[in-house]
Amino acid sequence: MADTRSSPRPPAGQRPRPARRPRWATWALVAGGLALLLGGAVLLWVRIAEVQQGAIVAPVPQGVTRDPATRARGAVLSISGQDSRPVATYDPPSGTVTVRFQSRYYDPHHTAALNRQYLATEGRLVVQLILYNDPEVSRAVAELYRGRQRLATVSGAPGDSYSAYTVEYAPGVP
């Protein structure tokens, strides 16, 4: 007689079922994964907070200098956006940074007084950002344009207050 105590075989064409993992093992794996994810998020958050507070300064490779013209271009982009198309130059002997850009806030449909206020504020903010904590810059000049028409020129030096920055409007600017 044949031995009938052998393990049951699945019907032809079916795979055998794998052994089930206990439920507690599945939950333990999920909990471990969540703990790792949460720990990584906390470490990232702490690192971002340190950078924002100035505790960690990004290393500048040896031989690389921070160009004031690049900083001026970034100042314009942060105030006036990508459509401003800033062009910045830096003259090291005089320490002057000049940036030319399209004004974001000038609108010919506004009143002349409102446009002048917008131009002065936009230019002063750019000059202030250029001068902020940069010992290489002795003078910052912002030229605001609409198309090819120069609308205003704003300039300032590190010792000047925000309200003391010089604002000159182009002749005929409404």
Give your account of this protein's structure.
There is one protein chain. The protein is an alpha+beta fold and 174 residues long. It folds into two domains: 24-58; 68-169, GMP Synthetase, Chain A, domain 3. Helix content is 36%, strand content 18%. It has three helices and five strands. The chain has a five-stranded mixed beta sheet with strand order 1-2-3-4-5. The radius of gyration is 32 Å and the shape is elongated. The mean pLDDT is 86.
Into how many domains do the coordinates divide?
2
Low-confidence stretches: none
Please bin the fraction of helical residues: 25-40%
SSE class: alpha+beta
> Strand content of the residues, in percent?
15-25%
Give me the count of strands: 5
Q: Please name the CATH topology of the largest domain.
A: GMP Synthetase, Chain A, domain 3
Q: Helical region count?
A: 3
Encode the helix/strand succession as letters.
Answer: HHEEHEEE
Main sheet: strands, sense, barrel = 5 strands, mixed
Radius of gyration: 32 Å
User: Which strands sit side by side, in order, in the main sheet?
Assistant: 1-2-3-4-5
In whole angstroms, the N-to-C terminal distance is: 112 Å
Shape: elongated
